[in-house]
C-alpha cells in the first residue's frame, strides 16, 4: 500500500508504503523504538524479542526505503489481539504514518478473525482518535480468564491487569477497540 500525504502547499508530497517486516528490519525497528524507550513511552525489548516477533510486525518505509514507522499485532485469544510497539520516526509525526499503520494492523486483525484490539498506552489521544476507548474495569468471561492467566506473555498480564506487571505499567491506560467487519 503506497500512501501520499500532502504537506504545506509549497512542500512536496511525502510518499511511503507499509509492508510486512523482514528480519533485516529489526535494527531499524530498534532504532525507531529506542527514543520512545528513553522517554518511557514504550518498554525496551532485547533484540532477540524483536526477531522472535518479526512476523507480527508491519513497517512503513519512505520512498528511499528508510524505515519510518513500525507496529505489531499480537494475537492473545480467539477474538482478541494487542497492538504493540507502534512507533513513528519523529520527522514523520503528523503525516498519517501512525494512522496508516493502525489501519494495516486492523486489517490484519480482521483477516485473522479478531473482533477486539487491546493496547496499553500513554498515547491516549492517538488511540482515542483511532477508535479505542478506556477499558476501565472490563473483564473477560471467567473461563477465558482462567485460560489467559496461564500465559507467560506480559501483554496478556497487562490486559488482565495483573499485579505482577504494575511496576512497568503505572500511568498507562488500558484501551480496547471493537472491530467492525469491512
Description:
- It comes from Cryobacterium levicorallinum.
- Residues 16-151 form the N-acetyltransferase domain.
- This is Amino-acid N-acetyltransferase.
- The structure is a single chain.
- Helix content is 32%, strand content 28%.
- It is α+β, with helices and mostly antiparallel strands.
- The protein has an 8-stranded mixed sheet with strand order 1-2-3-4-5-6-8-7, sandwiched between helices.
- Strand 4 (67-77) and strand 5 form a beta hairpin.
- The longest helix is centred in the middle third of the chain and has 15 residues, at 97-111.
- It is globular.
Query: Which ranges are low-confidence, i.e. pLDDT below 50, for 5 or more consecutive residues?
Result: 1-11
N-C termini distance: 17 Å
Relative strand content: 25-35%
**Contiguous helical run count:** 7
Estimated structural class: alpha+beta
Helix-strand pattern, N to C?
Answer: EEHHEEEHEHEHHHE
Per DSSP E runs of 2 or more residues, the count of β-strands stands at 8
Quaternary state of this entry equals single chain
Helix % is 25-40%
What does the main sheet amount to? 8 strands, mixed
Amino acid at each position: 500500500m503506497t500512501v501520499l500525504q500532502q504537506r504545506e502547499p509549497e512542500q512536496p508530497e511525502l510518499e511511503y508504503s507499509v509492508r510486512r517486516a523482514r528480519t533485516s528490519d529489526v535494527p531499524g525497528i530498534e532504532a525507531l523504538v529506542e527514543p520512545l524507550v528513553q522517554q518511557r513511552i514504550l518498554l525496551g525489548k532485547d533484540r532477540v524479542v524483536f526477531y522472535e516477533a518479526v512476523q507480527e510486525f508491519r513497517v512503513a518505509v519512505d520512498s528511499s526505503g528508510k524505515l519510518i514507522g513500525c507496529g505489531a499485532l499480537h494475537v492473545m485469544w480467539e477474538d482478541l489481539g494487542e497492538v504493540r510497539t507502534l512507533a513513528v520516526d519523529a520527522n514523520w509525526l503528523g503525516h498519517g504514518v501512525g494512522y496508516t499503520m493502525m489501519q494495516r494492523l486492523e486489517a490484519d486483525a480482521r483477516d485473522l478473525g479478531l473482533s477486539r484490539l487491546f493496547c496499553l498506552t500513554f498515547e491516549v489521544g492517538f488511540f482515542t482518535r483511532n477508535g479505542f476507548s478506556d477499558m476501565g474495569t472490563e473483564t473477560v468471561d471467567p473461563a477465558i480468564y482462567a485460560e489467559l492467566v496461564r500465559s507467560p506473555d506480559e501483554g496478556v498480564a497487562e490486559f488482565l491487569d495483573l499485579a505482577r506487571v504494575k511496576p512497568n505499567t503505572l500511568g498507562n491506560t488500558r484501551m480496547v477497540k471493537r472491530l467492525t467487519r469491512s
